[in-house]
Amino acid sequence: MERLSFVLFLTFFLAVNGSGRGQDGSEFFSSLEKIIQTPSLMSTVACANPTRADFELQLFTRDNPMDPVPLNMKNPELDPTKPIIVIIHGWAQSPTAYGMQDMKKAYLYRYDSNVIMVNWQDLAWDYYPTAVCKVPKLAKMIADFLCTLSEIYDIDLETVHFVGHSLGAHMSGVAGYHTQNMCRQKIGRITGLDPAGPLFVDTERPNRLDSSDASFVDVIHTNGGFLGYLGNCGHADFYINCGSIQVGCTMPDYSLNSFMNLPMSIGMCHHMRSIDIWTEAVQTDNFKAIPCYYCPIGCPPVFSMFKTRTMMGERCPRNASGGYYVKTDVKKPYALTSLI
């Protein structure tokens, strides 16, 4: 299943981006052939160590909501008395990619805060296994920066909230893991938005998002088993419409001519829906979740429909645990006033 998901993921990448950056079609399909024939998907993957120049931490505040300010240790615009929200984009994305700016604006509207967007787009456009290989290394560098920032400004990392999409979700988790080792502090919260699934199914916990990475980890699942991770990886895991296929995302016909559009349908809309859902959850407190002990397999939880609802979003209670089912509308606003 992981191999199929990954092949679809790469085909989707080619369909969306032509032949990619710096990679012609023959090279792509040669890589794809190796993946199909290789027993262990990561067995032949190696990557260079990224440097500090390979990513940028962009600071936004209410006083400066539009123009990114490169964050450094002496940056006077960082207010250590205000909450810190760190947003990390996914593979083949950037801080200006789909939904990222809307999420940033939603946070600045809701909180007078420091919003830091991690721009790692130069590495995010690498061949997917190479990008995956670099995630733990980048995460460790982010953790080191955060620990130094905490020491200089006397910042309690409990006030820090990471929000990561796809590979960015795992990067957030690994950064949280390393802050505990480097500066003996736990990040307050990590929200994973449909954490990437391909190449992470059998990954050990230190190299992927896990409930031990922060004081509270909540996860939004929208494309599990395809581009997203299928299964619990937080304290509270919210399965949107059962977590794999989203309402309102149309499927193409299955003719040969539409083959290249199939991965886009299976992945793009469903995988990116987690961004839209979370942005709305920042803007409103309207998402109610039903306990779903057997999610994602036993979904929807028909015997839990009358149990107490749990709020999904910024006001999700810290004692929330296990799986939850969230039904949505087919278009914005996605939150439903009734779950039955």
UniProtKB/TrEMBL annotation:
One example of a Gene Ontology biological process annotation: lipid catabolic process
Keyword ATP-binding: no
GO CC annotation: extracellular space
Family statement drawn from the similarity comment of this UniProt entry: Belongs to the AB hydrolase superfamily. Lipase family.
Name of the protein in question: Lipase domain-containing protein
Stored Pfam families: Lipase
InterPro entries, sorted: AB_hydrolase_fold, Lipase, Lipase_N, TAG_lipase
Main location: secreted
Compartments, record wording: Secreted
Superkingdom of origin organism: Eukaryota
Molecular function per GO: lipase activity; serine hydrolase activity
Domain Lipase, residue spans: 71-292
Keywords (A to Z) from UniProt: Secreted, Signal
Position of the signal peptide: 1-22
